[in-house]
Amino acid sequence: MQIYLPIAEVSVNAYLLLGLGGIVGILSGMFGVGGGFLMTPLLFFIGIPPAVAVATEAAQIVASSFSGVLAHFRRKTVDIKMGLVLQAGGLMGAALGLVIFNYLKSLGQVDLLVKLCYVVFLGVVGALMFVESLNAIRKARKAGGAPAPRRRQRTWVHALPLKMRFRASGLYISVIPPILVGMAVGILAAIMGVGGGFIMVPAMIYILGMPTKVVVGTSLFQIILVTAFTTMLHATTNFTVDIMLALLLLIGGVVGAQIGTRIGVRMKAEQLRILLALIVIAVCLKLALDLLLQPSELYTLGAPGGH
Any stretches that span the bilayer, and where are they (predicted)? Predict the structure, then answer.
């Protein structure tokens, strides 16, 4: 069933969009990521303009994350206080990211920027998560199948001022690192149309030292407000949010998030992280390949125009 998307100005199969939304929703529930890192490139591949894909995907992430976080609230695996601090940084980052996005849009460089951002961030984060997950699995096996003990040694994070107690996470740390992490994710949300979970989840585990059980729920909680704010900014300044596209992705995403949350509970944290790392690396390689192949295609198309 073909459906015309008025803002994107293209016709797309509605069932394809519902299916894509469902897949991303499952990832959201399993890993605590918005899924935008996967959905935005997929939207590029089916012909959605980059500016529309980024803005509309932010809207879809709000719904799939909200659906996922409800299940985590029921299990009491959300650190609300930490989520609010991360959101404060995220809102500042989103406003800054939109300024950068609009500037590059005026230069006609948004498409290239978005793809380069994906290749760099996904490559680095995917590789780091993969190595960390392998190490965690090795340690667990050496300990006779018991999970690796959480590291409690003091780091540079503990030496910073403005400390606050986060009871749900069992932490007493400075609010500066969570705000900076939130800002980084807010910038990514505005420029790349992602919830930033693929940055947020490892940062919460390895930088902030949060226990894995509350990381996924808290990440989803943080994503909701930041991506909603990003969507509003794009809609009011660029008019690039396609409601019909967002609605179809949203329906699939809400259903998928509930399934993903159930799957995630049955898997070990190390298994979840290594699976997410492999998905991130695969998307990175696909985008890098597209960037490398693109120039030859453009020159080939441009040659007849010169006569």
Answer: 12-38, 44-71, 83-101, 113-134, 179-207, 214-233, 239-260, 272-289
